[in-house]
Specification:
This protein is α+β, with helices and mostly antiparallel strands and 375 residues long. It is 17% helix and 41% strand. The chain is elongated, with a radius of gyration of 25 Å.
């Protein structure tokens, strides 16, 4: 095997592939990165759950394959000087030459490396930037507790031209709808994708214009897997098992009140006021005609109060939230105006951006459970 490649191209391809290397490989060869050279360079990583593969153009002198430590290759690649890199094999060794730098890596038995899973059938495509933004809006609400795997995932529902993403950790729920281009207009499918894998993948595929999503439909083909590809990169992930919560029933159909606040000042005020909030204590919001008063801290502890302009439809209301959950939602709505719709101080409120047209449904909703106020 012998090829030449631009240093930045190599570092970029290796770094992207190395994201899928397991922290504690169940078998030693899974710590390896598979290098295959034909007319192009193909790098692969796999941990039995997630696979990653990137294909890129190189100047090939001699085709071949090798398996080397993925993390070591990633560290070396990003530290090379900005000059072309020559990679060659010599028996059980892989050598990198870049300017005056020389590295020799030991290889692992390539024949022991498992085959990467096949991509499921292509289901459709979506703009990469919009997909990354939508996933980041939803993934924030996914649970972190691995003892309840179902809550660590993002539910993906596809119905024709509409994709709905949803996640919850039981204290908040994020739902985002977006349009995409299905391979078949009648395509329907549901999948529960690990939130961290989905967020990392969506963010890393934005250098291509579109992301192709590969997913088995109701016909059962490609069951248990989802695939994403774009710009010469492809990744697959196993799906999570379990029935996701019936989240649509959690979203209120009608509200008793509605408040609107400028998003930027609201975020800054919540950050300031929550500085005095002890761990697990809420920020209290008192909505009145024309303003909202934010408060944190009680009794003998440090206290903070700040007032902001706000519009209110409905009765005055006092409601309290976990400040970090509230900030997550405010940061995700991508609108200059935050709209908070509520029923009572003890029932979930829904945070959205202000729709561009009156009466239009927001494509992103963030439901947040209030903290019960004592007294």
């Amino acid at each position: 095997m012998k090829f030449r490649i631009d240093r930045d191209a190599l570092a970029d391809a290796v770094a992207w592939t190395a994201r899928s290397l397991p922290q504690r490989p169940p078998v030693p060869v899974l710590a390896g990165m598979h290098i295959e050279v034909t007319d192009r360079l193909k790098l692969s990583a796999f941990d039995y759950e997630v696979s990653a593969q990137v294909t890129t153009d190189v100047d090939v002198e001699e085709p071949g394959t090798a398996l080397v430590s993925g993390r070591l290759l990633a560290e070396i690649s990003r530290s090379l000087p900005p000059q072309p890199v020559e990679v060659t094999t010599d028996g059980a060794k892989v050598m990198l030459r870049c300017g005056s730098a020389r590295f020799t890596l030991l290889t692992m038995p390539v024949e022991d490396y498992p085959s990467l899973p096949e991509m499921p059938p292509a289901a459709g495509s979506v703009g990469s930037d919009e997909f990354a933004a939508a996933v980041s809006q939803v993934a924030i609400a996914a649970g972190k507790d691995d003892t309840i795997p179902m809550l660590t995932g993002v539910r993906v529902e596809i119905e024709g031209e509409t994709v709905t993403l949803a996640s919850t950790d039981r204290y908040r729920l994020a739902v985002r709808e977006l349009h995409w281009n299905p391979e078949r207009p009648d395509f329907t499918a549901t999948a529960l994708v690990p939130a961290k894998t989905l967020a990392d993948t969506a963010k890393s595929l934005t250098h291509g214009a579109e992301v192709s999503i590969a997913l088995g439909g109701t016909d059962g083909i490609g069951e248990g897997m989802i695939g994403f590809s774009g710009g010469g990169r492809r990744t697959t992930s196993r799906l999570l098992d379990g029935d996701f919560v019936k989240y649509r029933s959690l979203l209120p159909n009608e509200y008793a009140g509605l408040a609107e606040v400028q998003t930027g000042p609201f975020i800054e005020a919540v950050k300031r006021v929550s500085l005095v909030a002890e761990r697990n204590t809420p920020v209290r919001l008192s909505f009145r005609q024309g303003e909202v008063v934010l408060e944190a801290g009680t009794g003998d502890e440090a206290q903070a109060v700040e007032a902001l302009e706000a519009s209110l439809e409905g009765e005055d209301i006092d409601i309290a939230f976990n400040p970090s959950f509230l900030l997550d939602g405010l940061s995700a709505i991508s609108s200059d105006v935050a709209r908070l719709s509520f029923t009572t101080p003890t029932k979930p409120a829904v945070l959205t951006g202000k729709p561009p047209e009156d009466g239009a449904n927001p494509n992103y909703r963030y439901l947040i459970m209030p903290v019960r106020l004592s007294g």
